[in-house]
Amino acid sequence: QGQLVESGGGSVQAGGSLRLSCAASDHTFNSACMGWFRQTPGKEREGVAAIYTYSGATYFADSVKGRFTISRDNAKNTLYLQMNSLKPEDTAMYYCAAGPGNSWRDSRNYNYWGQGTQVTVSS
Fold this sequence. Notes:
The chain is mainly β. Helices cover 3% and strands 49% of the residues. The chain has one helix and eleven strands. Strands 2, 4, 5, 6, 9, 10 and 11 form a seven-stranded mixed beta sheet that branches. A four-stranded antiparallel beta sheet has the order 1-3-8-7. The longest helix is centred in the first third of the chain and has 4 residues, at 26-29.
């Protein structure tokens, strides 16, 4: 069954970096698309980045382009989100997700979700 476990969140000052990891089961890691979402209280879950398994194509929200990168290590069944030049507005709970990838930004297109990891960026 699908299983996703995030790690790597924490507190950092503005301008700093963090790398989030998402360990996946074999079944989940073979999903067509894997992505990262984030959510703050009272707001909808926002698509941050996604990577398509077979093409390797990557997509990013405009707010993180040039600062975040997404990658996957097929040998370790692990998805990564490298976050550089972090800003206070990046503060959120970050979730890893996997699914068919019909529309990478739409959380409804993801079947599997991790429990989330908190990222806090102070000014």
